[in-house]
């Protein structure tokens, strides 16, 4: 859900490290689109805008049969997917679409529309399907997979292909290959257990409206406002630009869900400033990547996966958003502490006062937050459905833009925002469809129960083992698989394992959600970190390793709420929440200090080990481990304080 793509925003200094559009195209598959100009561009824009209007109408007003709504939605996705995305990366001919793309576009769209116009017949015919219906289903599945390959990438298709091959060869009991193929196509294409399962259903009902909202909000200039307000508040402190990156990304994360787009958008400003301040290039790229990736866990929108989580766990979306607040705050505190300690270690200063934006004029622009505040209010009070709340927020975004002459949303820009929302939906919907195929195949073959029973047996009564194995699965699967699809797969396989081990359902789903996200920072496939490295002109692998170190909170916080769900406001009191927040903060701070090798001054190896151990002990909710952890951290802090007094000149 790439909502903030400021591709050509110039850094506030002469050096422009790299063409930002080329960075987006290299690391963000969604940016590799066909080149349309003149009348064809207008036509394509109108078609994309019409799709957005279709989605708004269907989700807000229509009461169609679910099979008709979902199949027509995916038919649009297939049509637009071939229209917008070329078969491969590289230079594209202007206003050109190859004949074979036209054939696949028509065939794929027709396959889903066949289901749309024959929905009642298909529902009533039971399990008996004609051979041509199976062929139509195969064409539909293959065409959706090809759209996913073009807009998302190959890794998710490798996962889907593995499970489908497993189902056709080993997983299904029918003795004939045709029988297995027939059953698989019926299950994955003609039922609500495959393509048209929860991910696509949630995407068509909720996610698409928020993508359109984000496209309108972007055009109000709110992204620039977030960066400027962050500069005004923290830009002048030690290592200011890195802190600006953290604060601005946390604010942008409230309405955005793309790690790469956030990294390139904010990083075009913050990364050159970090380098100018004195940060190493790999650290500058890593800090922006770590902060931008955290945008997906920041309420209220949290990318697309938050809506899916609400459906999987069967709780209101507002409940998910509220429970996500403390973990998200802890994550950003962890990154903020890390960049602060790095700045102190290097003796870096903040930006000069004359280069900082004035706070008073910025406060006059706080009206830009009205659409977001209205959305939070409507969703939080449940006065309107999520869809209606987002639609009202869209109207509010148009209204507030009227007070900003430079970013006024005119009829032309309304058309552009609708088109951007339609294009942004293609990638998410394609990933949701293929994720539905994967989850459906796992369910169809009974592999989910086999996996659950195997890991539960392996872990025994040790929850920590199940948590660790789940973490590894999420990170490995997340290497190249979008967060939305990663979460869908993990919600079907690994989350039930944790629930069986006694972890509350919401905590289990948050756990797999978090570790699916950090895959964007974890080598060897760390797309957000690589995008930051490209802008910073740094070594990609060093940047990825540094970003993993900076985002250490993302590896700690999930264990905190899995072992002590109080942080998610589950079966707790105010005092327990306060206690867990304090111990968690101290633990994250201590681990960050250990990794940086700096507290009040440089720490020798033994102090780094002791303070890291103390920080990790504070993760465990047991009062005894908390006490030991506090003692260990306190001892190191006292030693640091005493030695600093003896050597006041030490930086």
How would you sum up this structure, described in words?
The protein has 651 residues and is an all-alpha fold. The protein has a domain at 573-651. It is 71% helix and 0% strand. It has 30 helices and no strands. Helix 6 crosses helix 20 (411-445), helix 21 (447-459) crosses helix 23 (483-500) and helix 28 (574-596) runs antiparallel to helix 29. The longest helix is centred in the middle third of the chain and has 35 residues, at 411-445. It is globular. The protein starts with 19 loop residues before the first helix and ends in a 5-residue tail after the last helix. Residues 1-17 have low confidence and may be disordered.
**Mean of the pLDDT scores?**
86
Distance between the termini: 43 Å
**DSSP summary, beta strand count:** 0
**What fraction, in percent, of the residue positions are helical?**
over 70%
Strand fraction: under 5%
Q: Count of helices?
A: 30
- Pick out the low-confidence regions: 1-17
Q: What sequence of helices (H) and strands (E) makes up the elements?
A: HHHHHHHHHHHHHHHHHHHHHHHHHHHHHH
What is the SS-derived class? mainly alpha
Summary of the model, kept short:
This protein has 651 residues and is mostly helical.
Layout of SSEs?
Elements: H1 20-27, H2 38-60, H3 66-84, H4 99-117, H5 119-124, H6 131-151, H7 155-171, H8 177-189, H9 198-218, H10 222-234, H11 240-252, H12 259-277, H13 281-293, H14 305-313, H15 317-323, H16 325-346, H17 359-363, H18 370-381, H19 386-401, H20 411-445, H21 447-459, H22 463-477, H23 483-500, H24 505-517, H25 527-536, H26 540-550, H27 552-563, H28 574-596, H29 605-617, H30 623-646
């Amino acid at each position: 859900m790439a909502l903030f793509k400021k591709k050509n925003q110039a850094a506030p200094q002469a050096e422009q490290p790299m063409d930002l559009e080329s960075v987006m195209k290299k690391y963000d598959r969604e940016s590799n689109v066909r080149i349309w100009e003149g009348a064809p561009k207008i036509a394509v824009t109108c078609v994309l805008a019409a799709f957005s209007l279709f989605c708004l109408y269907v989700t807000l007003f229509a009461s169609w049969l679910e099979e008709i709504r979902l199949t027509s939605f995916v038919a649009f996705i297939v049509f637009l997917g071939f229209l917008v995305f070329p078969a491969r990366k590289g230079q594209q001919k202007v206003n050109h679409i190859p004949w074979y793309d036209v054939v696949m576009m028509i065939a794929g769209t027709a396959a889903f529309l066949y289901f749309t116009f024959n929905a009642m017949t298909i529902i009533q015919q039971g399990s008996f399907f004609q051979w041509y219906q199976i062929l139509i289903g195969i064409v539909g599945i293959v065409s959706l997979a090809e759209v996913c390959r073009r807009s998302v990438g190959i890794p998710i298709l490798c996962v889907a292909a593995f499970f489908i091959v497993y189902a056709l060869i080993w997983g299904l009991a029918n003795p004939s290959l045709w029988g297995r193929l027939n059953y698989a196509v019926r299950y994955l294409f003609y039922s609500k257990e495959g393509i048209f399962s929860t991910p696509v259903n949630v995407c068509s009902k909720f996610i698409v409206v928020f993508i359109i909202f984000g496209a309108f909000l972007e055009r109000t200039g709110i992204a620039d406002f977030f960066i400027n307000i962050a500069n005004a508040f923290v830009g002048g402190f030690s290592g200011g630009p890195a802190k600006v990156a953290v604060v601005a990304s946390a604010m942008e994360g409230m309405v955005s869900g793309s790690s790469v787009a956030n990294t390139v958008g904010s990083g075009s400003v913050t990364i050159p400033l970090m380098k100018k301040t004195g940060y190493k290039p790999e650290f500058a790229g890593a800090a922006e990547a770590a902060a931008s990736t955290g945008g997906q866990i920041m309420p209220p929108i949290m990318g697309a996966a938050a809506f899916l989580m609400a459906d999987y766990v069967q709780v209101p979306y507002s409940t998910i958003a509220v429970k996500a607040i403390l973990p998200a705050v802890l994550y950003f505190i962890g990154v903020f502490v890390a960049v602060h300690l790095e700045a102190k270690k290097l003796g870096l200063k903040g930006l000069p006062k004359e280069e900082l934006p004035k706070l008073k004029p910025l406060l006059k622009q706080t009206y830009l937050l009205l659409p977001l505040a209205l959305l939070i209010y409507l969703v939080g009070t449940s006065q309107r459905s999520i869809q209606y709340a987002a639609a009202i927020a869209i109207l509010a975004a148009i209204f507030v833009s009227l007070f900003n002459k430079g970013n006024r949303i005119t009829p032309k820009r309304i058309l552009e925002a609708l088109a951007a929302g339609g294009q942004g939906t293609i990638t998410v919907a394609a990933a949701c469809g293929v994720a539905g195929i994967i989850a459906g195949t796992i369910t169809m073959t009974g592999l989910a129960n086999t996996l659950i029973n195997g890991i539960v047996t392996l872990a025994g009564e040790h929850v920590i083992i199940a948590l660790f194995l789940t973490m590894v699965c999420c990170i490995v699967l997340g290497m190249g698989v979008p967060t939305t699809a990663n979460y869908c797969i993990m919600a079907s396989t690994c989350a039930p394992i944790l629930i069986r081990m006694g972890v509350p359902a919401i905590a289990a789903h948050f756990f797999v959600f978090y570790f699916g996200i950090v895959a964007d920072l974890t080598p060897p496939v760390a797309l957000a970190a690589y995008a930051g490295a490209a802008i910073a002109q740094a070594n990609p692998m060093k940047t990825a390793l540094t970003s993993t170190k900076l985002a250490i909170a993302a590896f700690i916080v999930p264990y905190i709420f899995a072992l002590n769900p109080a942080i998610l406001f589950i079966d707790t009191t105010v005092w327990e929440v306060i206690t867990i927040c304090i111990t968690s903060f101290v633990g994250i701070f201590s681990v960050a200090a250990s990794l940086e090798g700096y507290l009040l001054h440089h720490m020798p190896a033994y102090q780094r080990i002791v303070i890291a151990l103390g920080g990790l002990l504070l993760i465990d909710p047991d009062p005894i481990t908390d006490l030991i952890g506090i003692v260990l951290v306190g001892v190191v802090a006292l030693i640091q304080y005493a030695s600093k007094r003896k050597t006041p000149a030490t930086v």
